[in-house]
Amino acid sequence: MAKTERSPSLKAQNSKAIWLLVVADVVIVTLVLTGFAFTQASITELAHSAFVRGILLAATGPLIAVFLNDLLSSDAKASIVFWRIKDVLPGHRAFSKHAEADPRIDLAALKAKVGEFPQSPRDQNSTWYRLYQKHQSNVSVSDAHKRFLLFRDAASLTVLITIVTSVAGVLAGIPLSLQAMLFGGLLVQFMWLALSARNTGIRFVQNVLAVEVTDDGRKKK
């Protein structure tokens, strides 16, 4: 499962939504900091202050984070989403947890197709991945895959945005109360995206197993 996020088509489809998130964060950070700045000094004073440079640095933080996000591995992003250090991919628990939790999946029928369920996380993921390769063109599988990648990348991006923006805030001397407000807003954004990534990632795994159960092995012409 670790290599599936490389699909150019899925990346291209998600890029617009990722950039919309970045633009929204840039606008919000800029408005909040600029609004605070105008309550503290006149336009002339602000034009010569280090605070303005801090605002510009904080506002470009999300843009910087976009490029840093591409440096993170798929495992690192999954760790951020699932809050795990080891066996971070949802495929690592495909048969021991996620299959049993989905009422659509007939476990007996699935076992008849794949044999005894693998036990180790690594074996579970590799077995699941082979099934994914068979059914990746299925609409329910590809849609769940796309949504998982979108929320996973957006969640890891939010972590980077938070770090860059926080550093910029400290360097610019932005009051702690204002930094805390921005941090709180980004934390809420991260929690929403991380939980969405978890749910869609698990659904992605389950959809592959559900399709495998109902697949009769015949190719449609």
Write the layout of secondary structure elements.
Elements lengths: L7 H33 L2 H5 L2 H20 L4 H9 L11 H8 L5 H8 L6 H15 L3 H34 L3 H39 L7
Helix pairs in contact: 1-3, 1-8, 3-8, 4-8, 6-9, 7-9, 8-9
Report on this model:
The structure is a single chain. The chain is mainly alpha-helical and 221 residues long. Helices cover 77% and strands 0% of the residues. It has helices spanning 8-40, 43-47, 50-69, 74-82, 94-101, 107-114, 121-135, 139-172, 176-214. The chain is elongated and about 65 Å long. It starts with 7 loop residues before the first helix and ends in a 7-residue tail after the last helix.
Query: Would you tell me the overall average pLDDT?
Result: 81
Structural class computed from helices and strand pairing: mainly alpha
- Low-pLDDT parts are 2-7
- Cα Rg: 22 Å
Shape: elongated
Number of helices: 9
The SSE string, one letter per element, is: HHHHHHHHH
Helical coverage, percent range? over 70%
Biggest beta-sheet profile:
none
Number of strands: 0
Distance between the termini: 29 Å
Please give a handful of descriptors for the protein shown:
221 residues; mainly alpha; elongated
